[in-house]
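Q: Make up one entry.
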Amino acid sequence: MAKWVYDFGDGKADGRAEMKNLLGGKGANLAEMASIGLPVPPGFTLTTEVCTHFYQNDCQYPKELEQQVEKALNLVETRTGRKFGDSINPLLVSVRSGARASMPGMMDTVLNLGLNDITVEALAKKSGDRRFAFDSYRRFVQMYSDVVLGIEINHFEKHLERAKEKRGVKQDCELLPEDLEKLVKSYKAVVQLELGEEFPEDPKAQLWGAVGAVFNSWMNQRAKTYRALHDIPEWWGTAVNVQAMVFGNMGNDCATGVAFTRDPSTGKNEFYGEFLVNAQGEDVVAGIRTPQELTIRARQSHGSDLPSLEEVMPNIFRELLSVRSQLETHYKDMQDIEFTIQQGKLYMLQTRNGKRTAPAALQIAVDMAKEGLITKSQALLSLKPDLIDQLLHPTLDPKAKKEIIAKGLPASPGAAGGKVVFSADEAVRRCKDGEKVILVRIETSPDDIHGLHAAEGVLTTRGGMTSHAAVVARGMGRPCVAGAGSITVDYAAAKLSVGSVTVTEGQILTIDGSTGEVMVGEVPTVPPQLSGSFGTIMQWADEVRDMKVRANAETPADARQAKEFGAEGIGLVRTEHMFFEGQRIVAMRQMILATDEADRRQALDKLLVMQREDITELFRIMDGNPVTVRLLDPPLHEFIPHTEAEMALVAKAAGVPLDRVRRRAAELQEANPMLAEVGRSSKKLPVAEVMVPLVATVEELKLLKGVIEKTADAVKKEQGITFTYKIGTMIELPRAALQAGRLAEMAEPEMKMGICGEHGGDPASIEVRARRGAELKVLSAVETKVPGYFEKIRHEVVDRDKGKGEDGTWGTDTMTFQDDELSYALGKQGGTRKKLERASGAVVQYVGQNALFSGEKSLRRKAKEYMKWLFNQLEGPVYVDGWEDRDDCTVVDVPSECIGYVTGARRAALGNMEEEWGTLMFFMNKEAMNGGGKGRDRSDRSRGGSEQLAIFGDRRARRGAELKIMSAVETKSPGVFTRGVREKFSSEKGFATDRFVLKDDELSYALGKEGATRKKLELASGAILQYVGHVAFVAGDLKERKRCKQFIDWLLSQRRGSVTVSDIQDRDDCTEMMIPENCKGWVTGNRGSELRRVEQERLLIFSNNPGSKTGDGGRAHAERMVNEMVQDRRRSRNSVVIPVAAGAVTPAPAPGVETQGGGFGWSIAADPPPGGDDRRRGAATRDPELEHLELMDKVSGRDLAQRHALRAAAATAADANVAKGAGPRNPQATGCRGTKAYWNSLKLFLQWELFHRVQYFRTEPVRAFPWCKWPQQHVTHRSQEGEYMKGGPEGYKNLFMDKHGMHEEERLVGF
């Protein structure tokens, strides 16, 4: 029976720290702390596999789970001596989330679970403290109602505030027992009012409700956002931890707190944390009360009058210090811990690796290595490369004038300034518009995660150093000032006040997270100063690294900074970047716009003086380190003058008429790069490397190489010196990439290779495997040009990465070929080498007569085996003994009469399948091999029987190839694989295969012309889809399989009419676009050809691949392409395009054109209009205005006030625009509300509004408006730009603020 529940407590545990993938970080660490003897309240963990099962099975639990939970709960009762739901001695529990990666505050927690009207009385009696019992009860009712029942917390907060106001107190802890009893009744009344049912009293029902809520919180929006920001996969899931409650709110000998074993802001080896007396854990994190410091030193440094834990409970403090030391020694990292003190006894509730700032991460790594806790290598590996980026941000200039208005706690270091915003949504909106913002909140909650990410910094008036805002800001590298209690925030008025100073939304505020200072206005910054632990880490990294790092730099300032950061030269000087400023850009434009050689030389002479000075200074700064200078590669869109003033400056500088400059700028096209000369260093001879950009052919490089050599000789003669230099090129064009081998022949024999730009600094681009593959590719090219070169450096190459990799088994093996073997091992156009590489997972490259296999040990072993089998086939049939036990092999029995059909002429069909799936495939015949023959001949095959086709590769690739083989066999011999087959749908969470039967007419439709529909279904869903006879086989993980089946169902449903996708907004594989009615045909094309062209180029709108707008695939790129098509349509018409009525679903064109990229599409409404598809059924009974507004309501979430404003504006328009005799307008009369005049007036009103938006926001030229002649007062209103931009009349304002949904539209959804 599967084990779904793991228990811990009393010094024992089922789990351990290494099991965090199964138990989650919290569960694994609770088990570990219990095992090493720390005081951990007993409990149990529901594994992450339960979460996976929960989501894969329509939110249903495994059948064994309830029994295992009951058993574990009984064990907790035994260990605590209390009983769950007991009326005398009740056990209360907490229910908390716990993913394998820390996600602070992103998921839900329920405390004090098990309380009801009976157990609360027992708790009061047992504890002797009625106030404590009912304080716990009211907290539980509020938390459970929020987390499990989904009732907004503000419904309860107002009752709490009212109770404190009535009692005349400010703190929750000052309420009396009778106040709390009344609060519980009020809270329960809220539940009854909101849900129409009573608050659950059964503890078991409470428990399962809380467990379900925690699992559901894995998919809440804030958790999704956090996962996206921190690259946490959705399929990881979360565990749920159920633990016996211990109470920090039973009196003044009780407390709760959060601590870090070292300072997470600075990294200093100081105990750091906060606590609250007579409180529960959420009070500290939520920032509801200002907490107290742990140590006397921290209290004094923060100027707090509240006593520290060291003073209040000195014995507990000493015990906590011991725990701190024990945890750091055990985990060998800084720990973030949660603790509770109940009646003088310490309990540990959690430990995890603490989040820290970048400076702190460096300091902690260096200190722990020096203390002997970890090695230097472990210190380096503990640091993520992106942390370094956080160190390179500026800090406030200490000499700058600052108007400090308040001071809070320095919760996360760094300085930031921006416009004040008071909501997370507003922060995101302004950030998208390119504005820098400071998010100001009384206190943050997990729901603010998107705003925290968008903001430059965070300011809160409540909370401490371990509040939600502080912890999340530190993890994100954002400055944060917390607990600035002198500031008053007014959300309704969108302003903050402190003393006589008021700051409204949109004004500039600066915060310093290192000092806690809050300043009005923008304060200048200074560049970061890197020293101390940063220098130590860089020194340690230098001791073990095997790569050199150069800088991209064009200016002396950039070069100096790069040298200070440790750059060993300049990898790229983009010479054109030297000419963006002042008179330099004028001279550059003069050179670009020159119409003859004389004019160009005149301009180049000016540029030469400037460039020589700059490059000489670069050589001087680098002082002997190499400098790679790229020849001029001016991006014309940046240099060509666009305005009259710019053109006039160029004309004046060149001494030519302005008309000539205008004409030349208009006709100029991209030109070849131009050569510039370089200077010499004053100290050491320059180490110059000349890079030729944008080379496409060998002839180009050869020509320019000659020019460079000629220029170099001239410089040597002119300067009377001798120097060395190198010539190379940048591979940046597709043609150059294809001819890299030939281009390499023109470069230097001692070739080096580098990656520049953002890719060069991306940690993913310098992974061991990527570097190794590129290195071996270059070595192969060099060996072709310089035979024997590899033998000189064989030892260095083979041993370089030895022992690296996750399991320490990375290495490189070699195999030497004979002359006749190399071509066979290489294959046509390198095909055999490629399939060996893809099938094995190792890096496979041939350098001269040597085969090099790089990768983990297991991958190298596979690659060498595959190579051996390839050569053995030359001698006869090959049989792999023990293939049944291998994890890289699948065998298909192919009927003898189908072998030729599957293999194809000269093995072409089988070879194509190998290339498509990255597999190695060959037929095995054990009998023929044992007999020493060459296998069966064609006459043997005709007599029946079968042969085994072995497929080698990873699991997914093997399954794809296997299904392809099965499909081919089934075409030749129907029934071989499908006779008697039944439908099967697996609930397995991992990789599996489903199958279902299609009817004749369904199969042809789902296949499409030349298999086009099958291909796009496969690519859009991410699953493997293959039709074997009439059976559809779908392979992949559960999500991919479900998605593919859904897509097929939608596709087949199209034939019968409209298709509704009701969960568009909740899907993570869908991008939705608004397409104007008169652009729909333009986008769709003739019989859908344009839409399928988008699909064919793999520009998907509905796909498992989200893509990016700068990439060349996925939904985002498809959206951009469609937008461009719409804009082309708009530009092609002499009018503003206004979307008009669409409403119901338009069926997709019949499939027919083969699509290479996958995906399919049709126009679709968000939901079908009530009454069905009127356009199809010919119905005309619905109220057109009502139908329109209902659709707008669903699409854009319009509220009642906006709807009334629209109605009023349309009514005014109707009065002014309806022709005389068209009939009365009476919106209250059902018969008149839908009149043609009223409907047309509404439509025209919307058209006019959209027309204004196009003009003002897209700054396009004013065009004719052919739809109507609008009343004069509306036309003149348009000319009053200032009034219009301010909003105008209320009706206009409401409409103007509504960005979308004010016109009828269709939604294009591509699959």
Notes: The radius of gyration is 36 Å. The CA atoms of residues 844 and 1163 lie 47 Å apart.
